[in-house]
Amino acid sequence: MYKQIYLCLQQLSRRTICSTARRQVDNMVKEKQKLFQADNGIPVHLKGGAMDAILYRLTMGLTVFGTGFVVYELLSASMPKKS
Amino acid sequence: MAHQAHAYHMVDPSPWPLTGAIAALLLTSGTAIWFHFHSLVLVTAGMILLILTMIQWWRDIIREGTFQGHHTPPVQKGLRYGMILFITSEVFFFLGFFWAFYHSSLAPTPELGGCWPPTGIITLDPFEVPLLNTAVLLASGVTVTWAHHSIMEGERKQAIQSLTLTILLGFYFTFLQAMEYYEAPFTIADGVYGSTFFVATGFHGLHVIIGSTFLAVCLLRQIQYHFTSQHHFGFEAAAWYWHFVDVVWLFLYVSIYWWGS
Q1: What residue ranges are annotated as transmembrane (chain A) (predicted)?
Q2: Which residues from chain B sit within 8 angstroms of residue A8, using beta carbons?
Q3: CATH of the domain at B29
Q4: Using one digit for the tens of pLDDT, what is the confidence trace for B99-144?
Q5: N or C: which end of chain A has fewer CB within 10 A?
């Protein structure tokens, strides 16, 4: 999806800068529909490919780290000497 | 394979409600930790987590609707109800700040000099930049309606142009308002005038930024052929939100900038 966005912006900026070199943004919806309707049991948040898994792990990692850090910070804030 | 006996969309199990809730936890406790102990780590982590959650959650909704076909007419009806209810809740949010403004301005206390605007406050001229801002937002309401009609009529190029123009007008408003904030002869700390002015217009500005972002996502989706002339609810939701932002500004302009000056 991000490669798509990059390609679109690239094509869009080329189009606005040079009006003679017009290239249509390709309609990839059919391919996307095939990818996301594949009967493989993968949930939608991971179905797009490897990038989905990387982003998911990053997000969940931050979630777990954040939860632990909050507990630490709040515990330390509740102890008179440590604050 | 079992089939459901109802028309509603049962989504796949998703981690984003949990990550969003933790983001809210990090933002709230992080703000408290920042205020008391000067550490920005928690708040920053909360902001990043919130942005990651929003991107992935809404990316998944696009996948479910546009690529998997789950947004059938009954499901779309539910989404419409949802957006309307959300905007209604935002109306009540702003109502509170207008209440605060009218509470203080209709019966100004002796501490303010018994008058509104309070003694010593140099107000902004409502017929200068604020009037331009009004024109900018009203024009953006026209361009977003132009974009809607273009989408419904299958006019791809015009839809892209009018939607781009709407977003640019939104950015122009934000830029002008930022300049006004910088140049204003009063601050948020200047009594109840400053508080009501900057909190009400500040939250409005935040909503302009949110609305512009929503419209920008719609622009990218329009370019990528996601919308059809019959089915483009994401765009309609963004347009509703944008009109709401415009109406709030009109109330702000008339109440705070004009009557309140």
Answers
A1: 54-75
A2: 220, 223-224
A3: 1.10.287.70
A4: 999 999 999 999 999 999 999 999 999 999 999 999 999 999 999 9
A5: C
- Both tokens of B98, joined, read 């207008």
Q: What is the CATH number of the domain that holds B138?
A: 1.20.120.80
Q: How many domains are there within chain B?
A: 2
Q: Are residues B172 and B194 in the same domain?
A: yes
Helix B16-37 crosses helix A50-78 at what angle (to 10 degrees)?
40
Q: How far apart, in whole angstroms, are the C-alpha atoms of residue B232 and residue B230?
A: 7
CB nearest B67 (choices: A32, A67, A70): A32
What is the per-residue pLDDT across B177-208, written as a single tens digit (0 to 9) for each?
999 999 999 999 999 999 999 999 999 999 99
Q: Are residues B151 and B31 in the same domain?
A: no
Please indicate, yes or no, whether residues B62 and B9 belong to a single structural domain of this protein. yes
pLDDT value at residue A12: 61
For residue B114, what are the domain limits? 72-258
Give the residue ranges of chain A where pLDDT is below 50: 17-21, 83
Interface confidence (ipTM) of the complex: 0.87
In the predicted model, what is the mean pLDDT of residues B36-64? 96
Query: Which residue's entry shows tokens 């361009």?
Result: B143
* C-alpha distances out from residue A45 to A42, B160, B180, B189, Å: 8, 28, 42, 45
Chain A residue with the nearest C-alpha to that of B54: A59
